[in-house]
Design goal:
With 263 residues, this protein is mainly β. It contains 3 helices and 19 strands. The chain folds into 2 domains: 47 residues, FAH (SH3 type barrels), CATH 2.30.30.370; 204 residues, Fumarylacetoacetate hydrolase, domain 2 (Alpha-Beta Complex). The strands form 3 sheets. Strands 1, 2, 3, 4, 5, 6, 7, 8, 11, 12, 14 and 17 form a 12-stranded mixed beta sheet that branches. Strands 9-19-18-15-16 form a 5-stranded mixed beta sheet, with no helix packed on it. The longest helix is centred in the last third of the chain and has 9 residues.
Length: 263
Amino acid sequence: MRIARFSDRDGQIRYGVVEGDAIAVADGSPLLRLRRTGRKLALNDVRLLAPIAPCNVLALGRNYKAHAEEVGGDVPQAPLLFMKATSAVIGPEEPILLPNAAPDRVDYEAELAVVIKRAARHVSEQDALAYVLGYTCANDVSARDCQSADGQWARAKSFDTFAPLGPWIETDLEPGDCDIRCRLNGRLMQDANTSLMVFSVPHIISYLSRCMTLLPGTVILTGTPAGCGFVQTPPVWLKAGDVVEVEIEGIGVLRNPVKREPQ
Protein backbone atom coordinates (compact mmCIF):
# COMPACT_ATOMS: atom_id res chain seq x y z
CA MET A 1 0.00 0.00 0.00
CA ARG A 2 1.20 3.49 -0.83
CA ILE A 3 0.23 6.12 1.71
CA ALA A 4 0.46 9.74 0.58
CA ARG A 5 0.06 13.05 2.36
CA PHE A 6 -1.29 15.78 0.14
CA SER A 7 -2.87 19.18 -0.15
CA ASP A 8 -6.08 19.41 -2.17
CA ARG A 9 -7.27 22.35 -4.25
CA ASP A 10 -8.80 23.95 -1.15
CA GLY A 11 -5.47 23.77 0.65
CA GLN A 12 -6.65 21.10 3.06
CA ILE A 13 -3.97 18.60 4.09
CA ARG A 14 -5.13 14.98 4.02
CA TYR A 15 -3.81 11.46 3.82
CA GLY A 16 -4.79 8.99 1.16
CA VAL A 17 -3.92 5.71 -0.52
CA VAL A 18 -2.39 5.91 -3.99
CA GLU A 19 -4.14 3.65 -6.49
CA GLY A 20 -2.68 4.04 -9.96
CA ASP A 21 -3.32 7.60 -11.13
CA ALA A 22 -5.77 8.31 -8.32
CA ILE A 23 -5.67 8.78 -4.59
CA ALA A 24 -8.33 7.36 -2.28
CA VAL A 25 -8.94 10.07 0.31
CA ALA A 26 -8.78 8.95 3.93
CA ASP A 27 -9.53 10.32 7.37
CA GLY A 28 -7.24 9.84 10.31
CA SER A 29 -3.52 9.22 10.41
CA PRO A 30 -1.37 6.30 9.25
CA LEU A 31 0.22 6.30 12.71
CA LEU A 32 -3.18 5.58 14.25
CA ARG A 33 -5.77 4.46 11.76
CA LEU A 34 -6.64 5.45 8.21
CA ARG A 35 -10.28 5.24 7.20
CA ARG A 36 -11.15 5.55 3.53
CA THR A 37 -13.86 8.08 2.85
CA GLY A 38 -14.99 6.59 -0.46
CA ARG A 39 -13.84 9.72 -2.28
CA LYS A 40 -11.12 9.62 -4.93
CA LEU A 41 -9.05 12.37 -6.51
CA ALA A 42 -6.76 12.34 -9.51
CA LEU A 43 -3.11 12.54 -8.51
CA ASN A 44 -2.74 15.43 -10.95
CA ASP A 45 -5.31 17.40 -8.94
CA VAL A 46 -3.41 17.31 -5.65
CA ARG A 47 -0.03 18.49 -4.42
CA LEU A 48 1.96 15.72 -2.80
CA LEU A 49 3.68 16.72 0.44
CA ALA A 50 6.34 14.99 2.49
CA PRO A 51 4.48 11.76 3.32
CA ILE A 52 5.01 12.22 7.06
CA ALA A 53 5.65 15.21 9.31
CA PRO A 54 8.35 13.53 11.41
CA CYS A 55 8.87 14.08 15.11
CA ASN A 56 12.56 13.23 14.66
CA VAL A 57 14.86 12.69 11.70
CA LEU A 58 17.70 10.30 12.56
CA ALA A 59 20.37 9.54 9.99
CA LEU A 60 23.35 7.27 9.48
CA GLY A 61 26.74 8.10 8.06
CA ARG A 62 28.98 5.80 6.01
CA ASN A 63 26.51 2.90 5.93
CA TYR A 64 27.73 1.69 2.51
CA LYS A 65 31.28 0.33 2.35
CA ALA A 66 31.99 1.93 -1.04
CA HIS A 67 30.87 5.34 0.23
CA ALA A 68 33.03 5.02 3.35
CA GLU A 69 35.99 4.20 1.13
CA GLU A 70 35.41 7.04 -1.33
CA VAL A 71 35.31 9.63 1.46
CA GLY A 72 38.49 8.23 2.99
CA GLY A 73 36.86 7.01 6.19
CA ASP A 74 36.76 3.66 7.93
CA VAL A 75 33.67 1.49 7.79
CA PRO A 76 31.95 2.13 11.14
CA GLN A 77 31.96 -0.64 13.73
CA ALA A 78 28.51 0.50 14.87
CA PRO A 79 25.87 2.69 13.21
CA LEU A 80 27.18 6.25 12.98
CA LEU A 81 24.28 8.43 14.08
CA PHE A 82 23.57 12.09 13.42
CA MET A 83 20.36 14.10 13.35
CA LYS A 84 18.69 16.50 10.94
CA ALA A 85 16.28 19.25 11.94
CA THR A 86 12.65 18.47 11.18
CA SER A 87 12.38 22.00 9.71
CA ALA A 88 14.56 20.72 6.83
CA VAL A 89 11.81 18.38 5.59
CA ILE A 90 10.13 19.11 2.25
CA GLY A 91 8.11 17.04 -0.20
CA PRO A 92 8.35 16.07 -3.85
CA GLU A 93 8.70 18.87 -6.39
CA GLU A 94 9.49 21.39 -3.65
CA PRO A 95 12.73 23.24 -4.33
CA ILE A 96 15.97 22.53 -2.54
CA LEU A 97 17.23 25.99 -1.64
CA LEU A 98 20.93 26.77 -1.81
CA PRO A 99 21.34 28.71 1.46
CA ASN A 100 22.79 32.19 1.38
CA ALA A 101 25.02 31.19 4.30
CA ALA A 102 26.59 28.30 2.36
CA PRO A 103 25.54 28.18 -1.31
CA ASP A 104 28.60 26.83 -3.07
CA ARG A 105 29.20 23.23 -1.91
CA VAL A 106 25.77 21.71 -1.59
CA ASP A 107 25.61 17.99 -2.33
CA TYR A 108 23.00 15.25 -2.86
CA GLU A 109 22.71 11.90 -1.04
CA ALA A 110 20.11 9.33 -2.13
CA GLU A 111 18.83 7.28 0.80
CA LEU A 112 16.18 4.79 1.84
CA ALA A 113 14.08 6.25 4.68
CA VAL A 114 12.29 4.16 7.30
CA VAL A 115 9.12 5.46 8.99
CA ILE A 116 8.42 4.18 12.52
CA LYS A 117 4.74 3.54 13.34
CA ARG A 118 4.80 2.78 17.08
CA ALA A 119 7.08 3.49 19.99
CA ALA A 120 10.15 1.24 19.91
CA ARG A 121 12.44 0.79 22.91
CA HIS A 122 14.92 -2.07 23.41
CA VAL A 123 13.66 -3.85 20.31
CA SER A 124 15.33 -7.02 19.02
CA GLU A 125 16.45 -7.33 15.41
CA GLN A 126 13.95 -10.15 14.96
CA ASP A 127 11.05 -7.90 15.99
CA ALA A 128 12.31 -4.63 14.52
CA LEU A 129 10.32 -4.58 11.27
CA ALA A 130 7.06 -4.91 13.21
CA TYR A 131 7.62 -1.31 14.31
CA VAL A 132 7.88 0.00 10.74
CA LEU A 133 5.01 1.71 8.96
CA GLY A 134 6.84 1.73 5.64
CA TYR A 135 9.57 3.24 3.53
CA THR A 136 10.11 6.29 1.37
CA CYS A 137 12.81 7.98 -0.69
CA ALA A 138 15.03 10.59 0.92
CA ASN A 139 17.72 13.04 -0.11
CA ASP A 140 20.17 13.86 2.68
CA VAL A 141 21.22 17.21 1.21
CA SER A 142 24.50 18.42 2.72
CA ALA A 143 26.52 21.63 2.76
CA ARG A 144 30.01 20.10 2.56
CA ASP A 145 31.91 23.25 3.53
CA CYS A 146 29.92 23.49 6.77
CA GLN A 147 30.35 19.78 7.35
CA SER A 148 34.13 20.11 7.09
CA ALA A 149 34.39 23.33 9.09
CA ASP A 150 32.17 22.33 12.00
CA GLY A 151 33.68 18.94 12.79
CA GLN A 152 30.16 17.58 13.24
CA TRP A 153 27.28 17.38 10.80
CA ALA A 154 24.13 18.87 12.30
CA ARG A 155 24.30 22.35 10.76
CA ALA A 156 25.53 21.13 7.38
CA LYS A 157 22.57 18.81 7.03
CA SER A 158 19.81 20.86 8.64
CA PHE A 159 19.40 23.96 6.46
CA ASP A 160 15.78 24.48 5.46
CA THR A 161 14.82 22.18 2.53
CA PHE A 162 17.77 19.80 3.13
CA ALA A 163 15.57 16.75 3.84
CA PRO A 164 13.32 15.97 0.87
CA LEU A 165 11.05 12.95 1.47
CA GLY A 166 8.57 11.21 -0.81
CA PRO A 167 6.70 10.69 -2.96
CA TRP A 168 4.77 8.41 -0.57
CA ILE A 169 5.23 5.69 2.05
CA GLU A 170 5.34 2.16 0.65
CA THR A 171 4.23 -0.33 3.31
CA ASP A 172 4.97 -3.49 1.32
CA LEU A 173 8.71 -3.55 0.69
CA GLU A 174 11.72 -5.74 1.38
CA PRO A 175 14.20 -3.08 2.56
CA GLY A 176 17.23 -5.32 2.27
CA ASP A 177 17.15 -5.70 -1.51
CA CYS A 178 16.14 -2.54 -3.36
CA ASP A 179 17.97 -0.79 -6.16
CA ILE A 180 18.70 2.82 -5.20
CA ARG A 181 19.73 5.54 -7.66
CA CYS A 182 20.29 9.26 -7.86
CA ARG A 183 20.09 11.25 -11.08
CA LEU A 184 21.21 14.84 -11.48
CA ASN A 185 19.69 16.51 -14.55
CA GLY A 186 19.10 13.00 -15.94
CA ARG A 187 22.69 11.88 -15.38
CA LEU A 188 23.08 8.78 -13.22
CA MET A 189 25.26 9.69 -10.22
CA GLN A 190 24.55 6.93 -7.70
CA ASP A 191 23.56 3.35 -8.49
CA ALA A 192 23.58 0.65 -5.80
CA ASN A 193 21.37 -1.76 -3.85
CA THR A 194 20.34 -1.65 -0.21
CA SER A 195 21.80 -5.15 0.20
CA LEU A 196 25.17 -3.35 0.26
CA MET A 197 24.37 -1.54 3.51
CA VAL A 198 26.88 -2.18 6.29
CA PHE A 199 24.03 -2.31 8.83
CA SER A 200 20.61 -3.63 7.85
CA VAL A 201 17.33 -1.90 8.63
CA PRO A 202 16.48 -4.35 11.47
CA HIS A 203 19.93 -3.84 12.98
CA ILE A 204 19.64 -0.06 12.75
CA ILE A 205 16.22 0.00 14.44
CA SER A 206 17.36 -2.36 17.21
CA TYR A 207 20.57 -0.42 17.80
CA LEU A 208 18.90 3.00 17.93
CA SER A 209 16.08 1.72 20.16
CA ARG A 210 18.68 0.77 22.78
CA CYS A 211 19.76 4.42 22.83
CA MET A 212 16.42 6.24 22.67
CA THR A 213 12.72 5.64 22.28
CA LEU A 214 11.87 5.71 18.59
CA LEU A 215 8.60 7.63 18.70
CA PRO A 216 5.79 7.12 16.19
CA GLY A 217 6.58 9.27 13.18
CA THR A 218 10.35 9.00 13.55
CA VAL A 219 12.12 8.91 10.18
CA ILE A 220 15.44 7.09 9.88
CA LEU A 221 17.71 7.79 6.91
CA THR A 222 19.81 4.68 6.33
CA GLY A 223 22.88 6.11 4.60
CA THR A 224 23.92 6.87 1.05
CA PRO A 225 25.84 4.74 -1.48
CA ALA A 226 28.93 5.80 -3.40
CA GLY A 227 28.81 8.57 -5.98
CA CYS A 228 28.18 11.80 -4.10
CA GLY A 229 29.04 15.02 -5.86
CA PHE A 230 32.04 16.00 -3.75
CA VAL A 231 33.98 12.84 -4.73
CA GLN A 232 33.57 13.44 -8.47
CA THR A 233 36.48 14.77 -10.55
CA PRO A 234 35.93 17.68 -10.69
CA PRO A 235 33.42 17.95 -7.80
CA VAL A 236 29.78 18.30 -8.81
CA TRP A 237 27.86 20.76 -6.64
CA LEU A 238 24.16 21.48 -6.85
CA LYS A 239 23.36 24.74 -8.62
CA ALA A 240 20.24 26.72 -9.35
CA GLY A 241 18.29 25.16 -12.21
CA ASP A 242 19.33 21.58 -11.41
CA VAL A 243 16.86 18.75 -10.88
CA VAL A 244 17.68 15.91 -8.47
CA GLU A 245 15.85 12.59 -8.59
CA VAL A 246 16.11 9.80 -6.02
CA GLU A 247 14.65 6.52 -7.22
CA ILE A 248 14.20 3.42 -5.08
CA GLU A 249 12.91 0.16 -6.50
CA GLY A 250 9.44 -0.63 -5.20
CA ILE A 251 8.78 2.92 -4.02
CA GLY A 252 9.11 5.41 -6.86
CA VAL A 253 10.87 8.66 -7.67
CA LEU A 254 11.44 11.69 -5.44
CA ARG A 255 12.08 14.71 -7.66
CA ASN A 256 13.21 18.15 -6.48
CA PRO A 257 14.38 21.22 -8.42
CA VAL A 258 17.19 23.36 -7.03
CA LYS A 259 16.93 27.11 -6.51
CA ARG A 260 18.92 29.82 -4.77
CA GLU A 261 17.50 31.00 -1.46
CA PRO A 262 16.00 34.48 -1.82
CA GLN A 263 18.16 37.27 -0.42
